[in-house]
Specification:
Elements (H helix, E strand, L loop, with lengths): L11 E6 L14 E2 L2 E2 H11 L5 E5 L3 H9 L19 H14 L8 E4 L9 H12 L5 E7 L9 E3 L5 E3 L17 E3 L4 E3 L1 H6 L8 E5 L11 H11 L12
Parallel strand pairs: 1-4, 1-5, 6-11
Antiparallel strand pairs: 2-3, 5-10, 6-9, 6-10, 7-8
Amino acid sequence: MSRPSAPNRPHRVCVIFARGGSRGIPRKNIVPLAGRPLIAWSIGIALRCPSIDRVVVSTDDEEIAEVARHWGAEVPFLRPPDLAGDRSPEWLAWRHAIEALQAAPGARPIDVFCTLPATSPLRAVEDVEACLSKLDSGGFDVIITVRDAARSPFYNMVTLDDDGGAKLVIPSDQPLYRRQDVPTVYDITTVAYAAKPDFIMTQSGLFAGRVGAVVVPVERALDIDTPYDLRIAEALAADAPLLAMEASR
């Protein structure tokens, strides 16, 4: 879906990437979660974000495309199969989406690109808006979302050698007894990403530039990768705010 925006305001486009060949959970992007397809949660939040002008889904799968349109997103192109495999870097899919959208007749230049992976259904509008605002503030090429890490590589994360011996991932010269004694670390989440299109088109990955971060509460940062994650999401979704999603019927 696209909506009119002020001519002098940056043109912000959200692209949701949803390939058909997920393995951990077959057909994951359209599996039901609390009564609606998983991808519909991301589409619904994107549609509610006042800073987003256009909501697009990039997929290689006709069924996913149909579901996405039903829930209010545009699907102006299908992603090539070589960009939708298990080993296909999503960074290249980001580039393909930007190129395809910019190549359309009469296309307005994209000033800000953001993506809301379908695997993080419990995000809030404020999380996405915080990413866009931080990118607008200048100083960063790309914004990621993070959450408090459950474990620290300085304190309670280890590697194992061939004999089964354990060593701290980051050893210290001094004994460490409490998490409070080590640097605070964060887990990257899939809640939201925002970037300048030129950065995506000219660089090789997220950390090739200056990366800013928005901290998201743990309860909104679940990333669904396994059936167990989906069961957790089902439990949490019962307490999530009801999303106002307009279906295209």
